[in-house]
Amino acid sequence: MSDMSDSATPSSPNIDPDRAGLARRDAVALLGLAALAAATGCGTSSTSRRRLDPLHAGDLSTIPGRRTPAAAEPAEPRFVGPDAGGIAQLKPRSQWARGEPQAVLMNRMKPVRSITVHHDGMPPVGLASTAAVAGRIELIRAGHRARGWGDIGYHLVIDPLGNAWQGRPLIWQGAHVKNRNEGNIGILVLGNFEISRPTEPQLDSLVRNLEILGRFYRVPTRSIYTHQEWPGASTLCPGRNLQARMSGVRRSVG
């Protein structure tokens, strides 16, 4: 039986803007993003011509008759692998998450073969401080939990200042690319890059962390994808302005 005690409905996200340190002028706008976080994940604007890809549809843990529940044990609390070496200035879950991963709703991570870069597709509202970023990531987690997922779908989150935040622990398969989640690390870059541009600190952090993860897990540069680059994906993620920078990102990683 799954434990949905940390879930929240899209209209009532499990977020306290004051506790998260958000400015009052941003609180209403952030609450309005909750439905978007729950409904589209890393999809882009609702006016895009291409279909928004349901992130979790390819995760076998949500398909009736196909789920392979993990053993009843606590999730590994740290960022498995690279943190030993480590992800530079990684901000742990304790700085943002208001709930623990639900092991029975997730599958164990298979040997890592690829890394996928996403954007969250949400307007850059309330991302001017560390507390505000923590609130945004928790908003996304709450939206994903409201859909019955075991945790936030991504393994690493990069904010506009270039900080790296721990998402879903890497011992668990992510939920970010339809039918392609096995052995696939998900990196979320906060912003809607159809309408804005990633910051230089974000791009620098993306390169640095792709280098670290690629080296640790022996993922070649040719196996670093964006969401839209996967065969069969019908999405604009990670947005045209980040997609345009990915050739340079991969050259820098290589």
Structure keywords:
254 residues; alpha/beta; Lysozyme-like; 5-stranded mixed β-sheet; 5 strands; 25% helix
Fourth-level CATH superfamily: Peptidoglycan recognition protein-like
- Assign the CATH architecture: 3-Layer(aba) Sandwich
Continuous helix count: 5
**String of helices and strands:** HEHEEEHEHH
Please indicate the percent range of residues in DSSP E strands (runs of 2 or more).
5-15%
Cross-sheet strand order for the largest sheet: 3-2-4-1-5
Largest sheet: 5 strands, mixed
**Quick one: CATH class?**
Alpha Beta
- Assembly classification: single chain
What is the 3D shape? globular
Low-confidence stretches: 1-31, 43-78
Q: What is the CATH topology descriptor?
A: Lysozyme-like
Backbone structural class = alpha/beta
Distance separating the two termini = 45 Å
Number of DSSP strands?
Answer: 5
The share of residues in helices is 25-40%
Number of domains: 1
Cα gyration radius (Å):
17 Å
Average predicted confidence as pLDDT:
75
Task: Chart the SSEs and their pairings.
Blueprint: H1 24-40, E1 114-119, H2 130-146, E2 156-158, E3 164-166, E4 184-189, H3 200-217, E5 224-226, H4 240-243, H5 246-253
Parallel strand pairs: 1-4, 1-5, 2-4
Antiparallel strand pairs: 2-3
Walk me through what this model shows.
The protein is α/β, with parallel strands linked by helices. It has a single domain, classed as Peptidoglycan recognition protein-like (Lysozyme-like), CATH 3.40.80.10. Helices cover 25% and strands 8% of the residues. It has five helices and five strands; from the N terminus they run αβαβββαβαα. It has helices at residues 24-40, 130-146, 200-217, 240-243, 246-253, and strands at 114-119, 156-158, 164-166, 184-189, 224-226. The chain has a five-stranded mixed β-sheet, covered by helices on one side. β2 and β3 (164-166) form a beta hairpin. α1 (24-40) packs parallel to α2 (130-146) and α3 packs across α5. The radius of gyration is 17 Å and the shape is globular. The relative contact order is 0.20. The model is unreliable at 1-31 and 43-78 (pLDDT under 50).
